[in-house]
């Protein structure tokens, strides 16, 4: 641990023509922590990662990584980071092993050390059997795993993972989580952007909810959920075709918002101040002869917190052209 933040962003602004991707964003990430940036597509997460990786120069503001300015000292920053983006950046004409060893040599590792570390990360990500095949023969999920392996081979002090679970099967995602836990135990700083609530909740000690280029809220998962206040009532309707009628019956029961409706699953969720609201919901639906599959009083999820702060769940995309697509 060090007193110098691993990442410090101060009033960072990024524009692409008339599109504002980051709007005066402030962020401080403690060294040795796993920090999650949670938000929908277009919120500005990838734009910030590109700035941190020196791939994009901010329009305004200041960003430092381990004390080094990303604009004034880009080479020093690049030597201290590992990066895995949303899309696998691997050479399809090389083998998996050649891709990973090439990145190791860019970290100035000796040939012997590069080969040793390549074997280690290929084994970690279940790519040993395919290691000596051309990447052009890999599936999309295998390419994502190879890209992650290459990003970790240099054992940098700061690792930037931009939606790393995209394209991974459940087994590979669990392996990724295990590796992030290992990096944390070793003192590596990990900045993780994600739309997966479970991923942020499981891995990050601190989470920032990003919305429209700004930090809407920040804290530990427990702090964010406790700030929501109260509980969430989940009502699952037996027949999803009844969801419209059921949501109308329960519309005025929410403590501070309209119910959140998932038509596909037949679920209605809303914040409640009184735990006895579950009995009232059952009484109302029974009076209208709307069969219920389940009623459950739950602690709020990160998605509930984000919805309360922004008016939409994390998975929703913003209308119009995505800010992060502008940065691509």
Walkthrough of the structure:
The structure is a single chain. This protein has 328 residues and is an alpha/beta fold. It has two domains: 7-223, P-loop containing nucleotide triphosphate hydrolases (Rossmann fold); 230-299, YebC, transcriptional regulation domain (Alpha-Beta Plaits, 2-Layer Sandwich), CATH 3.30.70. It has helices at 45-52, 74-78, 96-106, 111-124, 140-152, 170-185, 197-203, 221-228, 243-250, 277-287, 302-310, 323-327, and strands at 7-16, 19-29, 34-38, 60-65, 68-69, 81-84, 158-162, 189-194, 206-211, 214-219, 231-237, 260-262, 267-272, 292-298. 43% of the residues are buried.
Number of domains: 2
- Distance between the first and last residues' Cα: 34 Å
CATH class of the largest domain: Alpha Beta
Radius of gyration, whole Å? 22 Å
| CA-based shape | globular
The third-level CATH topology of the largest domain is Rossmann fold
CATH architecture descriptor text of the largest domain = 3-Layer(aba) Sandwich
Q: What is the β-strand count?
A: 14
- Specify the CATH homologous superfamily of the largest domain: P-loop containing nucleotide triphosphate hydrolases
Structural class of the helix and strand makeup? alpha/beta
Summarize the structure.
This protein is an alpha/beta fold and 328 residues long. The protein has helices at residues 45-52, 74-78, 96-106, 111-124, 140-152, 170-185, 197-203, 221-228, 243-250, 277-287, 302-310, 323-327; strands at 7-16, 19-29, 34-38, 60-65, 68-69, 81-84, 158-162, 189-194, 206-211, 214-219, 231-237, 260-262, 267-272, 292-298. It has 12 helices and 14 strands.
């Amino acid at each position: 641990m060090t007193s110098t933040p691993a990442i410090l962003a101060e009033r960072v602004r990024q524009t692409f023509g008339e599109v504002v991707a980051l709007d005066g964003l402030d962020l401080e990430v403690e060294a040795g922590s796993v920090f999650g940036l949670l938000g929908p597509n277009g919120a500005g997460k990838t734009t910030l990662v590109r700035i941190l990786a020196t791939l994009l120069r901010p329009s305004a503001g200041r960003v430092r990584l381990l004390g080094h300015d990303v604009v004034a000292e880009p080479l020093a920053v690049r030597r201290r980071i590992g990066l895995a983006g949303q899309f696998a950046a691997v050479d399809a004409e090389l083998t998996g092993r050649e891709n990973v060893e090439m990145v190791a040599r860019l970290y100035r590792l000796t040939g012997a050390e590069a080969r040793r570390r390549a074997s280690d990360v290929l084994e970690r990500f279940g790519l040993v059997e395919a290691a000596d095949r051309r990447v052009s023969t890999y599936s999309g999920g295998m390419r994502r795993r190879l890209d992650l392996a290459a990003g970790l081979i240099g054992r940098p002090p700061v690792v930037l993972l931009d939606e790393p679970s995209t394209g991974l099967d459940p087994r590979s995602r669990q392996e990724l989580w295990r590796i992030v836990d290992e990096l944390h135990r070793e003192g590596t700083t990990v900045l993780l952007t994600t739309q997966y609530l479970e991923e942020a909740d499981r891995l990050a000690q601190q989470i920032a909810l990003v919305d429209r280029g700004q930090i809407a809220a920040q804290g530990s998962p427990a702090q964010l959920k406790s700030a929501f206040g109260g509980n969430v009532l989940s009502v699952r309707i037996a027949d999803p075709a009844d969801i419209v009628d059921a949501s109308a019956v329960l519309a005025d029961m929410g403590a501070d918002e309209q119910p959140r409706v998932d038509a596909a699953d037949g679920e209605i969720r809303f914040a409640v101040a009184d735990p006895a609201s579950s009995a009232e919901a059952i009484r109302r639906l029974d009076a209208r002869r709307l069969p219920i599959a389940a009623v459950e009083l739950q602690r709020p999820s990160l998605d509930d917190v984000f919805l309360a702060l922004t008016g939409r769940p994390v998975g929703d995309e913003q209308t119009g052209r995505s800010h992060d697509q502008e940065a691509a």
